[in-house]
Structures are given as C-alpha cells and as structure tokens.
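Much of our argument rests on the idea that a fold can be written as discrete symbols. Part of our work consisted of pairing the sequence of a single chain with a tokenised description of its backbone. No coordinates are needed to read the tokens, only the vocabulary itself. The record that follows shows the chain in one-letter code together with its fold in token form.
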Amino acid sequence: MIGVTENLALIKDLLAKAALEAGREPESVRLLAVSKRQPLEKVLEAAAAGQQDFGENQVQEALPKIEQSASLGLTWHFIGRLQSNKTLKIAEHFDWVHSIERLKIAERLNAQRPAGKPPLNVCLQVNIDDEQSKSGLRPVDVPALAAAVGKLPNLRLRGLMCLPAIRSEFDEQRKPFRILRELAEYVSSDAIPLDTLSMGMSDDYAAAIAEGATIVRIGSAIFGQRK
C-alpha cells in the first residue's frame, strides 16, 4: 500500500514538472499539505519526508496537531472560514491565514497576535466566480480591504487566495487564476508588495502554476481519503 512518503514524492515531482512547463523554477511553488481530518501520524510521516507546510480548517482539530508537533518547527496555515470566536486561537497558534474577507476579522487577528511573535501572514480570499456557496470578497472590493489590512502592524498581507468553480479543460481552468493574478498585480505596490497567490488543488494545480500560483493546496492525494 502506497504511503504518505511515496505520495508526497510523487506530488512534488508533478508540481516541479508543471512549474518547468510554465517556464518557472520548481522552488517558486510551495506545496501546502492539507491535513484536515487526517491523523497526527500522517502529518508526522509527511514532516519526516521533508514537508514543512500544513493546512487546517478547524481550530479544535488543528490545535492538538500543532502542539504535539511543536518541536518540528512546522508552518501551519489556517485555510477555513474565519469566525470571530475562533480568532484568538488562530492568532496564537498559526503562521498563515488564507481566508481573510472582512476587516473586522483582520483587526481581531491583529489585536490578538501575541507579542514576540512575527506578524501573522495573511491572504485575502476572493470569490472569483461569485459563487453563493463560497466565502470571499468580490474582486472589486479587494483593493480597499488590502489597503486597510496592509496598515495593521501585527499582520503581513502576503497576497490573494481563491477557490474557483470546477472546470475540466486546462484553458478554462486558467481563466479564474489569471484574473486573480492580474488583480494581485493591480493591488500590489510599494506600500503593499504582494508576493503570494494561493490557488490550485489536485485537479487544477497545473493551470494555477501556469498563471503564477506560489502556494498549491493538496490533501487526499498525499494523505489518502479523509475520515
């Protein structure tokens, strides 16, 4: 039975191939292993195989994993919907948040980030296809929120994130990612130098990488089916 270590090596090879085909260096694409609803043992196996970045969307589930792997120096990304009553634990324990869509939440994270910790890396989530079932900002609202979040001293605005509607054709998959990239280029400035595009998953990572993705989220292809 193929395990996490073998799956991880295969995924890294596929991401590197996609980067090279897009004329990019493989090192420019960061793999975020989505470990939600996966046991700690699989996280530890992935970490032992060299994986650094892990993504969770439930605070209660993530905290034991973060605490029990603290000695490994892993980087933890919160990728779920943000609730006001959960911001304290996120600000205290996570290194990245990918799902900022309201200034109120950003201000809470900023106020609750512990003294002595580096600024919390954040991305704004954009509802790129205007889907009712998904969270995120309208593209037109991104510049104003980016300007406001960029002024918060305990947050570091890194870029934008999106979860586009499912598309099967490669050229069609590229379209929403291209929109997000162009939006990031428009927002980015000397005051807000964005360097991150968090986009692409198992079925569309190649299209995302072709359009400049710097963080790609892969879960079950690494860890197997979730509980």
